TrEMBL record:
Encoding gene (name): Dgcr2
SMART domains per the UniProt record, alphabetical: CLECT (SM00034), VWC (SM00214)
InterPro entries from the UniProt entry: C-type_lectin-like, C-type_lectin-like/link_sf, CTDL_fold, IDD, VWF_dom
Assigned GO CC terms: membrane
Species this protein is from: Gymnorhina tibicen
UniProt name for this protein: IDD protein
Coiled-coil ranges (or none): none
Pfam family membership, one: Lectin_C
Ranges where the C-type lectin domain occurs: 44-186
Length: 255
């Protein structure tokens, strides 16, 4: 903009020239994450994924996932499974997994139908209301198998070494549901504000990104109808720093 505009257009009352100032012009916004901290986002399913490395049995793992508005993960396509296998999930020192390989509870159960010479059965999705999913291939069975168990629970095994991980090598296990294991939760993407709080549908919030002066409406896990506030720079301060998480809040850096 111009500080002094043409006199023919800028004359105010009394003949004074109107002065215009530009202030912090809004920049194009890129929303960084659609999942809470610790979750991995996959655009193909608009979902968030998190491995819990503490060991829990299958039923406790189901409840833990439900408490975070998710469920044990099931997969809709090979691409989704490849995304899971390619992630580096070992972020904690005391992980409930072996160093060379990892097994996670996932949202399938193996129903045994015949115990004659070999175990026969079929996979089922462990919870109702799932969208279309693919079912795993025939599993590897755990060594210590009780004859009373008619339902086993699914573990997905992937590998720690990058070369194996990126080639998508993995195995499916049918395990006693009361064994303790790490587990993989899946939930729909959601609106997450700049302070990492989860935002409910229809509410106003400031999304994660580079602009703390943005106010948007949460709609289907996406920020929509955004409005930006523009801040005038602090008066009497030559050098200053903008607060990355508070709108129109500055720290003066002058001596």
């Amino acid at each position: 903009g111009k500080e002094n505009v043409d006199s023919r257009h800028g004359r105010g009352r009394g003949g004074e020239t109107t002065r215009f100032h530009t202030v912090n012009v809004a920049q194009p916004v890129r929303f960084s994450r659609k999942c809470p901290t610790g979750w991995h986002h996959y655009e193909g399913t608009a979902s968030c994924y998190r491995v819990y490395l503490n060991g829990e049995n299958y039923w406790d793992a189901v409840q833990t996932c439900q408490r975070v508005n998710g469920s044990l993960a099931t997969f809709t396509a090979d691409q989704e499974l490849r995304f899971i296998l390619a992630q580096e999930w070992d972020l904690e020192e005391k992980a409930f997994v072996r160093k060379d390989q990892r097994r996670f509870w996932v949202g399938y159960q193996y129903v045994i139908t015949n115990r004659n010479h070999s175990l026969e059965g079929h996979w089922e999705v462990a919870y109702k209301g799932s969208s279309e999913v693919f079912l795993p291939p025939d599993p590897t069975f755990a060594s210590a198998m009780s004859e009373k168990e008619n339902v086993l629970c699914a573990q997905l095994q992937c590998f720690h070494f990058p070369t194996l991980r990126h080639h998508g090598l993995h195995s499916w296990y049918a395990e006693n549901c009361y064994e303790k294991s790490s587990f993989l939760c899946k939930r729909s993407q959601t609106c997450v504000d700049i302070k990492d709080n989860i935002v409910d549908e229809g509410y106003y919030f400031t999304p994660k990104g580079n602009d703390p002066c943005l106010s948007c409406t949460c709609h289907n896990g996406e920020p929509e109808m955004c409005v930006a506030a523009l801040c005038e720079r602090p008066q009497g301060c030559q050098q200053y720093r903008k607060d990355p998480k508070e709108c129109c809040k500055f720290t003066c850096l002058d001596p």
